[in-house]
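hi! just following up on the protien thing from before. the input was this:
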Amino acid sequence: MEQAKRVIALGFFDGVHLGHAALLRRVAERAEELGAVPAAVTFDNHPENIISGEVRVPLINSAADREGLMERLYGIREVITAHFDQTMMRMDWRDFVTEYLVKEHGAVHLVAGHDFHFGYKGLGTPQRLRDLCGELGIGCDIVPRVELDGVTVSSTHIRALIAGEEMKAAVRFLGHPHVLSGTVIHGAELGRRLGTPTANLALPEGVLSPAFGVYACKVILPDGTDRPAVTNVGVRPTVSDAHTVSVEPWILDFDGDLYGRNVRLEFYKQLRPERKFASVEELRAAILENAAQTRAYFAEIKR
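and the predicted 3d structure came back as:
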């Protein structure tokens, strides 16, 4: 069976931000010109974490969420998630192109960013990639940096915004709401007793926690429909001393059983930092106020 031709974007794509968007749009254009499959290569582990032997870089998104963003927003039809381990880390940059991308995945055109380094010791550079593609007779585009407000769009900058109570700014640099998906699990059911029932999610391992606080979100339900949600991220200091981080959206205008189902959260803005209230009644009043703010926010952006 003849191997499919692919135009492949190269990168880790954490966050799938505006800089990545430039690469992915170029891939879609080249794929249409060449009659090829628009694809992207990413890794399951952040290379810096494997190289250092410790988790230095918390991820903006899980691998599954990165894949979903690339497919939904930019028309990427195949996301190739390579296992980044010691073997991959030591692979010669030429072999990564000739053996992995061209022979194994049928690359006929590659697209990379201006700062993309790959292969053993990062010896693969944009210029070396371009030169090797020329030798192999395949196409190559190197996409220049993307700036917003005079700042280079980068995953590092966006991580700092998400962790630093700057979700609205993070969304601008991402070019889309910040995404976090997970399976709904059983919680203490305090929200149900307060009349504000939440769908509790465990923060995926290795994924960055947004700054503790309450957020205006949308929840994408298993059937594909969406609802506004008031989401608390944090340790629930009013009702718990456990210090376990949880993500708890109260899905407005929804009544159903989601236990064991996967939902996608889309974060738009922070409404307030997490705080310890003097009583559960004060907490409930604050949640109701946040619900009203969330409804008003989404009504406004619909205009």
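The chain is about 35% helix and 25% strand.
Residues 280-302 form the longest helix (23 residues).
cheers
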